[in-house]
Give the backbone structure.
Amino acid sequence: MHTTSPPLAPAPKVLRRRAVSAALIAAPVLWLGPRAQPAVARRPTPSQTEGPFYPVAMPADSDNDLLRNGGLNYSVGQSAWVEGSVTDLSGKPLAGAQVEIWQCDHAGHYHHPGDGGKADQRFQGFGRVAVAADGRYRFRTIKPVAYAGRTPHIHVKVRLGQRELLTTQMYVADDPGNARDFLWRNLASAERAALTVAFVPGKDGLQADFPIVLAA
């Protein structure tokens, strides 16, 4: 009478081969897992000339509402909110900084003696605001207009204490005068993208978002 012998256990070498094969099969699952995304490189906002019309003396009213100059209300032009964030190259908000803007009125005149004193007195023309803890700033003004030799733009300056960190100009996206403007035309494409913003309809007027990045 013959008896069936129990199956022999695999040899240790065979077990090792099976273990290696299983590891190779499972390994691609690990390789296909999520990968860490590289940090987005931030470029500092390009600087531009201050121009000839920075205020000789700070106006009595220099808050962030350029459509109200003291007790006068300015209702000409297209009202707009210009806002954004001020951060360093790592994305950290630059709380404590001050943002200044200045621009011409609806007829193309600045509050400056070099422009003949023709500016509308209802338009404040210059404003400054402290950057909030989250890096945000906001101004109420008008969509900029063109004047002789220049495409529409708003001048921008950023200070931190006594330090002047940036002086530049902000332009209007798709304005036909941009290509003829000597300052806008001389910008590289990436610089144009950084300084040119869209003014889009919002619930309380046009809205323009202008982020400012500083190598501070």
In short: The chain is about 15% helix and 30% strand. Residues 19-33 have pLDDT under 50 and may be disordered. The first strand starts at residue 68 and ends at 69.
